[in-house]
Amino acid sequence: MGHGHSHTPAGKNKKRLAIVLALTTAYLVAEVVGGLLTHSLALLADAGHMLTDVAGLGLALLAIQFAERPATPERTLRLLSRRDIGSVNQCGGPYRDLAIHLL
User: Fold this and answer.
1) Burial, 23: exposed, middle or buried (Cβ in 10 Å; 0-12, 13-18, 19+)?
2) Count of domains in the chain?
3) Angular region, 60: left φ>0, alpha ψ -120 to 50, beta rest
4) Label partner for 49 (CA 20 to 30 A): which of 28, 59, 70, 79?
């Protein structure tokens, strides 16, 4: 414990994922501010789309943290399920976005 590196395949990219989350969040804030200042519906609509991206990235980071926890006989299936939920959310993103745009 605490020796500075991850033993899960997804955990190897955890730092990069956190950087992407920070950059995407910064762009989201910039789009919201820009959209409100210029009364641009296009910027605000794209900010809404970016919000779903930020949520997906945050969920992916949370899933990595759950996956890095040591498995116990009581928790093995539950931890696997949480990791899988994160990956399904990331894979289902285009379908979710399509459904939002069609509504």
Assistant:
1) exposed
2) 1
3) alpha
4) 79
2 within some domain = no
DSSP letter, residue 4: S
**Is 4 within a domain?**
no
pTM confidence score = 0.64
Residue 103's pLDDT is 44
Range of the domain at 62: 12-102
CA 36 – CA 31 distance, rounded (Å): 8
| Inside any domain, residue 96 | yes
Is residue 7, in this structure, part of any structural domain at all?
no
